[in-house]
Amino acid sequence: MAFTLPFSSALTQLFAYLAVFSSLILFSKYGLTRIFREPLVQLTLGLWVLLSLSVFWSIAPLPELTEGWSKYRKLLFAIIFIFAVSRNPDCLWLPLKAFAASNGIIAFLACLVWLGVDQWRPPDSGIFFVGPASNPTIGRNHITQGAFQVMAASLSIGFALAARSVNVRVGWLSVGVLTLFTSLGLLQGRTGYLLAIVAAAALVLLLISVRRFKVAVLVGFAAFLLFSSIWQLSPNFGPRTIQAIQSIEKYSSGADPNADQGVRLQFYAAGLDIFLESPVLGNGVGSFAEAYSRLPNENADLQRSRAQPHSEYVNLMVQGGSLALALFLAIGGLALKQAWGGVDDKAKSPKDFSLAILVTLFWVGSAVNSYIWDLAEGHLLIIILGTVASRSILSKQVAPS
């Protein structure tokens, strides 16, 4: 599943179900007791239970209610994944390595498209789409792929620095460079741009937190040079960023509320209004489209589109109220604490940095995209929670004497 995640929804779902069914075979009373003692599992289960119970007060029409509930069953899959990984300590980092390696292949193919070497390109179909040289996506849209490439870059650099073999280190470093170049230099996904900046800032802050001040300064300066260079050289990074800023200004001034990012901001403002009408339990799972369609003075085309709000925070606020939002924030906070904490500052490895940054990127990205609702990002959450929680469970086990 982790390997197919960057480029294929169909294969991701297929392997996800296979992983779930194969994990059920491993279930045991002791294993279940052990994982359900883990706070991260309890919070994840709590969010799933809340959204599942909300079917009883949801205002969503039956098809949208069913769709909404099915979107959040990935939370239950995450718990099953935690069980499977915690039973196999040697596989702890394997899913994230597969995810990063697959993104490296995607980045390589994107570079070939950019260079005009695309004889391998499959015929256009609704199953596997390859974008043009100006936006060389491979199998997914540029929003998802740009974000995944940045996440893979942060993981790959961590794996490279932690590797003992020179060949392995060079391999992972190559993946990191390729994926970062693809996201910032080739793709048009502004989520990727945002997450790259967040990743650099998070790395600097993490270095400062362990009192590696000189390294933090060097990393900050290197990141400044990198983004400045890409701003000047990339045909997408600068222009697309300026376009987003200008559209926000047009929305704020009322000149063009439907300009580019203005649509997102309309959804966010409307979501807040809906949330304030039912702030505790929300309007039930799958309810955003219906609640938005009932608002007066909103864009009629957007209301007819039955779209989701492009923000997991807004989506959860509307569906499950402040309780769902609090649980999601608690899951993110605890995941970050477990990814980064529990290891003495002097003993922290590059993998600790990468995992903490990955958690940060997921929860920041959730602010501008519906990361549990969306299929690809939601399955990445399964892997993230599975790795973080399993790592915590395994660290608590007493080593045999």
In words, what does this structure look like?
With 401 residues, this protein is mainly α. The chain has one domain (9-396). 71% of the residues lie in helices and 0% in strands. It is built from 17 helices and no strands. The chain has helices at 9-25, 29-36, 39-53, 62-71, 74-86, 94-115, 142-162, 166-186, 190-209, 213-233, 237-253, 261-277, 288-293, 300-305, 312-340, 350-368, 375-396. Helix 5 packs parallel to helix 17 (375-396), helix 6 (94-115) crosses helix 7 and helix 9 packs across helix 16. The model has no long low-confidence stretch (mean pLDDT 89).
Structural domain count: 1
Largest sheet: none
Query: Strand fraction band?
Result: under 5%
| Count of DSSP H/I helices | 17
Which sequence of SSEs, written as H and E, runs from N to C? HHHHHHHHHHHHHHHHH
Bin the helical content. over 70%
Kindly state the number of beta strands: 0
Mean pLDDT: 89
The parts where pLDDT drops under 50 for at least 5 residues are none
- Distance, first to last CA: 36 Å
By helix and strand content, what is the structural category? mainly alpha
Rg computed from alpha carbons, rounded to a whole number of angstroms:
21 Å
Shape: globular
Offer a few descriptive terms.
mainly alpha; about 70% helix
What is the element layout, followed by pairings?
Blueprint: H1 9-25, H2 29-36, H3 39-53, H4 62-71, H5 74-86, H6 94-115, H7 142-162, H8 166-186, H9 190-209, H10 213-233, H11 237-253, H12 261-277, H13 288-293, H14 300-305, H15 312-340, H16 350-368, H17 375-396
